[in-house]
Amino acid sequence: MFSGIKEALAGRTFYGRFELIVSGFILLLISVIIVYTSILASITVAEDFFLGMQFIETGVVKDTFGLILTILILLEFNHSIVSALRQREGSIQGSIIVLITITVIARKLILLDYASATPQLLLGLGGLALALGALYWLIAGVERRRRGGQ
Fold it and tell me: Is the pTM of this model over 0.85?
């Protein structure tokens, strides 16, 4: 294990080593959070099944679905860190961060209580989703042109 770490750190600048160590630590933290959230979601789903017909209520389903979406977002974030470490690029690409942010906004829109939502909130979330979609489209276009030129 230590030889693999030494090999990964070899040939890197001081900042590259620092970035690799911090990324590894964040990867470990997020992994712990994923395990904890998965256990919490499992307990919540088991409790919800014992509710019987009350499980079908919108609030209960939204809470359970929210936990599952949170786990999926954390997994995607963890995957992006692993990909950055494997590619030896060091930092996470901007397009991945934008995609994760779009996923978080989609989670918010899915779980939003539309009965109590204000028009300002809906317009703000819609504008944010539109802006993030346009940003991703621009970043993906640049990446496609970059790959096409290589």
Answer: no
